[in-house]
From TrEMBL, chain A:
Keyword set includes ATP-binding: no
Top-rank lineage group of the source organism: Bacteria
Native organism: Palleronia pontilimi
Compartment(s): Cell membrane
TM annotation in the entry: 29-50, 98-124, 136-153, 211-237, 257-282
Domain ABC transmembrane type-1: 94-283
Gene Ontology, cellular component aspect: plasma membrane
Stated name of the protein: ABC transporter permease
Automatic annotation (TrEMBL), chain B:
Cited PANTHER family: DIPEPTIDE TRANSPORT ATP-BINDING PROTEIN DPPD (PTHR43297:SF2), OLIGOPEPTIDE TRANSPORT ATP-BINDING PROTEIN APPD (PTHR43297)
Gene Ontology molecular function terms on file: ATP binding; ATP hydrolysis activity
Source organism, top-level taxon: Bacteria
Name of the protein: ABC transporter ATP-binding protein
PROSITE patterns: ABC_TRANSPORTER_1, ABC_TRANSPORTER_2
ABC transporter domain location: 18-267, 289-538
UniProt cross-references to InterPro entries, sorted A to Z: AAA+_ATPase, ABC_Ni/Peptide_Import, ABC_transporter-like_ATP-bd, ABC_transporter-like_CS, Oligopep_ABC_C, P-loop_NTPase
Membrane topology, record value: Peripheral membrane protein
Origin species: Palleronia pontilimi
UniProt-listed SUPFAM superfamilies: P-loop containing nucleoside triphosphate hydrolases
Principal location class: membrane
GO cellular component: plasma membrane
Keywords assigned: ATP-binding, Cell membrane, Membrane, Nucleotide-binding, Transport
Length: 298, 588
């Protein structure tokens, strides 16, 4: 018999608290959680923890030739081309990047998964219409679409997030669509239909749990793309408006000076990688925790 | 170990000697021994059967011999496998490549997945021939053709240029055998070679293996769970259980007088055609399911505009009824439409004709309107692993139908679940577990509990015991029987296994290509079959008795060629059923 370990020693129901406990028990996931928590803290309390005014341009922040200062002294991460304190700008930029990363990506995931599941389960005309629309969105160059949308609406953080979501949901919906189609043919879904379960019940109670791992993987992968897309938009002038900093626009503003002032690209780059990594680690762990067939393994 | 010193006929020298073979598999809880001290000899020209139920380690043995154990999860942890003078356990991967195919070849259960779907039969055969330098590149196609002729494949020239998907299951297995024999190996390992095939095809393949063995003098190691196949093929048998050798004996001795308890119970559990007890007689009851002129057709779209170009006539003009407390069996080979009928009864596929369940016509009902009907008719599917939701606890799944139909809520659900679990012989402690924590037989019990939760009057059992080990199969059949007696349930029992059907059915409907060939009471159809197709089906069933040889299959040429696919506008000719005796009708 394939019954594993003693059932009494294992928690059965996994509420939110239980999931959190399990996450903290896994070293990699715990690291991810700590990084995310630190970033959220920085975003919320930015005004209090910034060492200097992120918008103040000062000559003290420039060297004799008028170039940016390397890390050290009064400026722990150096200064940028205008003599602004990089550390402060990065801390304030956490707000923008985190909101964009989580909000834009969240909307993209919800929209993409929703469209994918609906089309995949119902098939026929529903699928034809939804998926052709998806194809249409895919056929548009993402940047062009973003520029047009951002030009119509006044750029603000929310609009930028919406624009990015609009561009990003299509891949997700394609993947979920194909996966739902194959799942819907599986016997346990047939059983549900033979019991008389309605479509809503089948979709949410039986299909969604099986799609979670793909949704989580795509959702966490999307975080870094989203942050970078925001940077591209800022660069083109339709993203977050200067002088408001975001990690992405700090990289883009300074990339031409990479050889002379590498810290300007290095620090925000590290932060983006950390953010993406943290979400990936948590996502991976979450996927395993939510899969009962993997209970008790690491 | 005295069994290990068993000598074959005439004390001939063994070609393969396995001594104290142990295999370990890595698990979360550390190394687990899945094969423990197995010893046997394989003598040239003989067939040795490794018999056992799932988890007995019989496939592990085959993989260990072939050097195909999944690394690094599994490894040979002790013992030797000697092929002539070579110790296979000490061989490198490179050394093994010289052995595989050339000296030891293997055929697998599922011929479709063992063949490369993107290569023609000729290329796959030539690849083997050239890899082992059996012949030159120029001669290879000729050799390939000869191999196909050897395995008695019809139209061998045409088959060479075909792809695996264009061949039937039996043809594919013949191609696999041709590939295995390409280099004239000393040993052929056949791992459940006929389990995925229909009985008549199984009989043909077994005949072929026997003929080829006689022609080439190959030693065959036959791995099977089917004691009928063992009785028919083996000279000697090694019975395995949970990785240990239970008993090793010449086949006649084993069947006549099994020495161990396990072998005895295993043999006792095998359903034998012609031995089933009489069914309890009930007074003629009310008809609970009435099916009249049922047809199910699936469209095949094609061409530039994606229009319907042909139709699969899966079910064509089938009529039958099931009375209360009655078990009606639908028998036939794969693709005969028997499962489709089950799905039509539940409204899972679009259909034509008339279906009345408990007197209610279900034709033209939407899914929502079907819901009340589904309280009367439920289904238990073939594969209990696939028909349970892996992400939901079994307790939740068992009460799910009651939630859907709003029959119970709150603590009542928990009580019902416990009661249902007890009814199917499971402990209520297991309710919070997930499907992967159960064995196959237990999972099927969970599925039965779920089907029972709505207190239906009819249960469709679609190959519900086919995926289970024989001993478990017998227990599940007993459970179904018990439930029928207690609740007055009716069953539509869909199966390909004649021996199982004989155990459970009151009446039998034999189907082929979507139409009824013969129907009547169990005794009339199974003991006095009239239609040639029924006779052929019955003759193909392996007899679990080595002293009796199966009669050769009645020749019904052309039967394999027929297909249920017809272009739009034409339909298969309807067969007429003629009354032979009261309640026994035969197509003519």
């Amino acid at each position: 018999m394939s019954v594993a370990a003693d059932p009494a020693t294992r928690p059965r129901r996994s509420g939110a608290r239980e999931v959190l406990r399990q996450l903290m028990r896994r070293p990699r996931a715990a690291f991810g959680m700590i990084v995310i928590a630190a970033m959220v803290f920085a975003a919320v309390f930015a005004p209090w923890i910034m060492p200097a005014d992120p918008f103040a341009q000062s000559f003290d922040g420039l060297d004799l030739m008028g170039g940016p200062l390397p890390p050290g002294g009064d400026y722990p991460m150096g200064t940028d081309l205008l003599g602004r304190d990089l550390a402060s700008r990065l801390i304030l930029g956490t707000r923008t990047s985190l909101i964009i990363g989580v909000l834009a990506n969240g909307i993209a995931v919800l929209l993409g998964a929703g469209v994918g599941i609906t089309a995949g389960y119902f098939g026929g005309w529903t699928a034809a219409i939804l998926m052709r629309f998806t194809d249409l969105m895919m056929a548009f160059p993402a940047l062009l679409l973003a520029i047009v949308l951002a030009a119509i609406f006044q750029p603000s953080l929310l609009i930028v997030a919406l624009v990015i979501a609009m561009v990003n949901w299509v891949q997700m919906s394609r993947v979920i669509y194909t996966e739902t189609r194959s799942l819907a043919e599986r016997e346990f879904i047939q059983v549900q239909r033979s019991i008389g379960s309605g479509p809503i019940r089948i979709l949410f109670k039986h299909l969604l749990p099986h799609l979670l791992s793909s949704i989580i993987v795509f959702g966490t992968l999307g975080i870094s793309t989203t942050v970078l897309l925001e940077a591209t938009l800022s660069y083109l002038g339709v993203g977050v408006q200067p002088p408001m900093p975001s990690w992405g626009n700090i990289i883009f503003e300074n990339q031409t000076y990479f050889s002379t002032a590498p810290w300007l690209v290095f620090f925000p780059g590290v932060l983006i990688v950390l953010l993406a990594l943290a979400f990936n680690l948590v996502g991976d762990a979450l996927r395993d925790i939510l899969d009962p067939t993997l209970k008790g393994r690491h | 170990m005295s069994d290990a010193e068993d000598r074959g006929p005439g004390g001939a020298r063994p070609v393969l000697t396995v001594r104290d073979l142990s295999v370990q598999v890595a698990t979360d809880a550390g190394a687990k021994t899945v094969l423990d001290g197995l010893s046997f000899d394989l003598i040239a020209g003989e067939t040795l059967a490794l018999a056992g139920e799932s988890g007995s380690g019989k496939s592990m043995t085959a993989l260990a011999i072939m050097g195909l154990l999944p690394k690094p999860m599994a490894r040979v942890s002790g013992g030797t496998i000697r092929l002539g003078d070579t110790d296979l356990t000490a061989l490198s991967e490179r050394g093994y490549r010289q052995i595989r195919s050339a000296r030891v070849a293997m055929i697998f259960q599922e011929p479709m997945t063992s063949l490369n779907p993107l290569m023609t039969v000729q290329r796959q055969l030539c690849e083997v021939l050239l890899e082992h330098r059996v012949c030159s590149r120029r001669q290879a196609p000729k050799r390939a053709l000869r191999l196909l002729q050897d395995v008695r494949l019809t139209e061998p020239e045409r088959r060479l240029s075909q792809y695996p998907h264009e061949l039937s299951g039996g043809m594919r297995q013949r191609v696999m055998i041709a590939m295995a024999l390409a280099c004239d190996p000393e040993i052929l390992i056949a791992d459940e070679p006929t389990t995925a095939l229909d009985v008549t095809v199984q009989a043909e393949i077994l005949d072929l293996i026997r003929t080829l063995q006689a022609e080439h003098g190959t030693a065959v190691l036959m791995i099977t769970h089917d004691m009928g196949v063992v009785a028919e093929m083996a000279d000697r048998v090694v019975v395995l259980r949970e990785g240990r050798q239970e008993e090793a004996a010449p086949v006649r001795d084993l069947f006549a007088a099994p020495k161990t308890d396990y072998a005895r119970t295993l043999l006792a559990a095998v359903p034998r055609l012609g031995t089933a007890p009489d069914r309890p007689v009930h007074p003629e009851a009310q008809k609970i399911v009435e099916v009249d002129d049922l047809s199910v057709r699936f469209d095949i779209a094609g061409g530039l505009l994606n229009r319907t170009v042909a139709r699969v006539h899966a079910v064509e003009g089938v009529s039958f009824h099931i009375r209360e407390r009655e078990t009606l069996a639908l028998v036939g080979e794969s693709g005969c439409g028997k499962s489709t009928i089950g799905k039509a009864l539940l409204g899972l596929v679009p259909w034509d004709g008339s279906i009345r369940i408990g007197g209610v016509q279900t034709r033209g009902r939407s899914r929502a309107a079907m819901r009340p009907v589904l309280r009367d008719i439920q289904m238990v599917f073939q594969d209990p692993g696939a028909s349970l939701d892996a992400r939901m606890s079994v307790g939740e799944q068992v009460v799910e139908p009651m939630r859907v139909h709003g029959l119970a809520s709150g603590s009542e659900l928990g009580d019902r679940a416990e009661w249902l679990f007890r009814r199917v012989g499971l402990s209520p402690d297991m309710l919070s577990r997930y499907p992967h924590e159960f064995s196959g037989g237990q999972r099927q019990r969970v599925c039965i509990a779920r089907a029972l939760s709505l207190s239906p009057r009819v249960i469709i059992a679609d190959e519900s015991v086919s995926a289970l080990d024989v001993s478990v199969q017998a227990q599940v059949l007993d459970l179904l029987q018990e439930l029928q007696e207690q609740d007055g349930l009716s069953y539509l029992f869909i199966s390909h296994d004649m021996a199982v059907i004989e155990q459970v059915a009151d009446r039998v409907v034999v189907m082929r290509l979507g139409q009824v060939m013969e129907d009547g009471t169990r005794d009339a159809v199974l003991r006095d079959p009239q239609h040639p197709y029924t006779k052929r089906l019955l003759a193909a069933v392996p007899v679990p008795d080595p002293t009796r040889t199966r009669a050769p299959l009645p020749d019904t040429a052309g039967i394999e060629e027929a297909s249920p696919i017809f272009p739009v506008g034409s339909a298969p000719a309807r067969v007429e059923l003629r009354q032979m005796s009261p309640g026994h009708r035969v197509a003519h």
